[in-house]
Write a structure and sequence with these properties.
The chain is an alpha/beta fold and 414 residues long. It is built from 16 helices and 14 strands. The protein folds into two domains: 124 residues, Gyrase A, domain 2 (2-Layer Sandwich); 284 residues, Dihydropteroate synthase-like (TIM Barrel, Alpha-Beta Barrel), CATH 3.20.20.20.
């Protein structure tokens, strides 16, 4: 078994992390020697990391190694009764303790080496602070604490919030230019509604709606343009017109040709989790373990993309707020958003004006700007690198204030 297969089988992810930043700052203020700060900071950063299906025998060896390092690991109660099989396991320790444990496991050989490599990669992914998103030969730099704003431009008559508002070609182009002036870092153009219960349109009509709009906006604004589609023919037409990112809500499962196109063009690619289809996704969605299932889905989507020749540096992940999720699911995703950082790719979040905000506030779709600002601020604080929104100027300000309070991105807020 190689590392990729091992990670697919065990689905490793950080589920909790206490950073040592404040502890380090206080030690410096207290006059602690710089070398002492370096050594002790590793003891102040606590991380809990879960694997879903680890061989019981290996799990026992991991627990022994964790205990020897002064930390611990929790495994399924039935795993102690003997026999084979697998068990979930949650590792708990400081940065220094993980270093010691990984060294011990690496010396044991076999699957213990794969486990050490999987844990090390997951911790490195989780602690990544910046990404270079490669899109058609250009690079979009994404950094924690300074989320990029993706402006939504629906060239449709039936989108849930602004359906018909920008259906006219000239109006859509003007809005795209306006969003760039308001501070959008990306403009996301879509020609087919994916709202719950939507029926869709044929590929020719979808392409007709977006192609001229993308071409004219690309001529007038410097920021990248993404095409929100699950059809290869529509994506190809948009890329030919000047788009550099594909935003695929089906994570490459909607059109078998899409992966080949993304690999061929080297464009950016957003892979989103959706349970079901737009027609069925809100019919009593159920998960046994929400975050773990979404993480496993996105991990598999990344693997399929890379196997098709797409570089990891092209990929963005989206947990799919509102796509096959209840109100409680959406809130849990936002609370635990940072856990998706374990995948090692930038996280896109789309909360703008969605139904869960209406359920919480009682506001109609077009009047959810304040509720959206609350969700956007939360997403920015919890690790989103890209925020997909309708109200560009307002949400850029909400994100800037939230990240400045958290002590990140203050130079951008000035």
């Amino acid at each position: 078994m190689d590392l990729s297969s091992f990670m697919a089988a065990t689905n490793p992810r950080v589920i909790s992390c206490l950073d040592s930043d404040i502890v380090e700052s206080e030690m410096r203020l207290a006059g602690v020697h710089a070398e002492g700060v370096r050594i002790m900071a590793a003891r102040g950063a606590f991380t809990a990391l879960r694997l879903d299906r680890l061989d019981v025998g290996l799990a026992g060896r991991v627990k022994t190694a964790m205990l020897a390092a002064g930390s611990d690991a929790a495994i399924e109660e039935s795993a102690w009764t003997g026999g084979g099989g697998t068990t979930p396991i949650i590792l708990m320790g400081t940065r220094r303790q993980y270093k010691d444990v990984l060294k011990t496991l690496g010396a044991q050989g076999g699957d213990a080496v794969l486990l050490a490599e999987a844990v090390a990669e997951t911790l490195d992914n989780y602690n990544s602070r910046s990404f270079a998103l490669r899109a058609c030969g250009k690079v979009l730099n994404l950094a924690e604490g300074r989320p990029a704003i993706m402006g939504i431009l629906n060239v449709t008559p039936d989108s849930f919030s602004d359906g018909g508002q920008f259906f006219d070609e000239k109006t859509a182009i003007a809005r795209g230019v306006e969003m760039a002036a308001e501070g959008a870092d990306i403009i996301d153009v879509g020609g087919e509604s994916t709202r719950p219960g939507s029926k869709g349109v044929d590929a020719e009509e979808e392409a007709r709606r977006v192609t001229a709009v993308v071409r004219e906006i690309a001529k007038q604004v410097p920021c990248p343009i993404s095409i929100d589609t699950s059809r290869e023919s529509v994506a190809r037409a948009a890329l030919d017109a000047g788009a550099t990112i594909i935003n695929d809500v089906t994570a490459l499962s909607g059109d078998a040709r899409m992966a080949g196109l993304a690999a061929e063009r080297g464009c950016g690619l957003v892979l989103m989790h959706m349970k079901g289809t737009p027609r069925t996704m809100q019919k009593a969605p159920f998960y046994r373990e929400l975050i773990g299932e979404i993480t496993a889905f996105l991990r598999d989507a990344i693997s399929r993309a890379v196997s098709a020749g797409i570089s990891r540096e092209q990929i963005v992940v989206d947990p799919g707020i509102g796509f096959g999720k209840t109100l409680e699911h959406n809130l849990e995703i936002l609370r635990r958003l940072k856990e998706f950082a374990s995948l090692g790719r930038p996280i896109l979040v789309g909360v703008s004006r969605k139904a869960f905000i209406g359920a919480l506030t009682g506001a109609e779709a077009g009047e959810r700007v304040f509720g959206t600002a609350g969700a956007v601020a939360t997403a920015a604080l919890n690790g989103a690198q890209i925020l997909r929104v309708h109200d560009v100027k307002a949400m850029k300000e909400a994100a800037a204030v939230a990240t400045a309070i958290a002590g990140r991105g203050t130079s951008e807020a000035k």
